[in-house]
Write a structure and sequence with these properties.
alpha/beta; TIM Barrel; 6-stranded parallel β-sheet; 11 helices; 6 strands; globular; binds iron/sulfur cluster
Length: 290
């Protein structure tokens, strides 16, 4: 996972980033630094998740993706976005596909509420319309390009979560949805009074999503990506366990360590997702943090 920027054009009420702190925006890696970094990655790297902040505020995001594709052996790119910049998203998807048609691209688009509320919680005019536009545009691109809507269950939407989900599926034609639960992280702390409602709403929503997936009404995000995450971690383990490389491993930077941890987290998440256990684990973790 690579946080390519902390900058974002939204100001969501549940964001973990401290936008008032000027240090937040320091230390963004340049293309030259990313080039060096990607060249140092092991060849077993199979996926990168570009995230932020809002990754598409970086105008050089295509160059960043190209560095990963050309300097490593990745097979897929996963991008989390608020979809406020649909033209940049479409251009990115098309250009990467034209040059590297073998690369799987998944775009996780965050939508959490009915149009007006979504725009007001994230503080961007017309955001909901742009999210929907991005979803539909990406859906019509070649099958290597997959959009998925991600709903974050928060204090803002927990009271209406089922009707919001029904609206997305029945009225907006969104057929690829996953969900997550808001976490106390960075500068964000969940209002205590809402914690139980959030947990209940998340349980109901995951149940609804699982049922609709079983019925074939919607699909979750691409399970092939999860297989790649699992494969990636497995090969990295092989790299560590290889005796010849073990000594070398002790000498190289923490960068590899970071990749291993990131991939393991994905692999574990992927394992639980594939076997329908992820929401249960998230609920346990959420309860423990209360
Ligand atoms: S879109 Fe994401 S990074 Fe931007 S303010 Fe909202 S939660 Fe934070």
């Amino acid at each position: 996972m690579h946080f390519i920027t902390n900058r974002c054009n939204a100001r969501c009420s549940f964001c973990f980033i401290d936008f008032d702190n000027e240090n937040t925006f320091k230390g963004e890696l340049s293309l030259e630094e990313i080039s060096k970094l990607t060249k140092s990655y092991p060849k077993s790297l199979l996926n990168v998740n570009l995230t932020g902040g809002e990754p598409f505020v970086r105008k050089d995001i295509q160059e960043i993706a190209k560095l990963y594709i050309e300097n490593t052996s990745i097979q897929s790119i996963y991008i989390t976005t608020n979809a406020s910049l649909p033209e940049r998203i479409e251009k990115f998807a098309n250009n990467i596909y034209k040059k590297y048609p073998h690369i799987e691209q998944t775009f996780q688009i965050s939508i959490d509420d009915f149009p007006e509320k979504h725009n007001s919680v994230r503080k961007i005019k017309d955001l909901f319309d742009n999210c929907l536009k991005s979803f539909k545009v990406l859906k019509n691109l070649p099958e290597k390009i997959n959009p998925v809507v991600s709903i974050t269950v928060t204090h803002e939407n927990c009271d209406n979560i089922e009707s919001i989900y029904d609206f997305f599926v029945d009225e907006c034609g969104i057929d690829s949805i996953k969900c997550t639960i808001v976490h106390d992280e960075g500068v964000f702390e969940t209002p205590k009074i809402k914690k139980q409602q959030i947990l209940d709403a998340y349980s109901k929503l995951t149940q609804k999503i699982n049922n609709d997936i079983k019925k074939g009404k919607i699909k979750n995000y691409n399970s092939k990506i999860m297989v790649i995450f699992l494969g990636s971690s497995f090969f990295i383990f092989l790299t560590i366990l290889d005796v010849g490389k073990y000594v070398k491993f002790k000498l190289i930077s923490e960068v590899i360590f970071f990749i291993i941890i990131a991939n393991l987290i994905y692999a574990i998440a992927g394992f639980f997702t594939l076997f329908g256990l992820r929401s249960k684990v998230e609920r346990i973790l959420y309860r423990r943090s209360r």
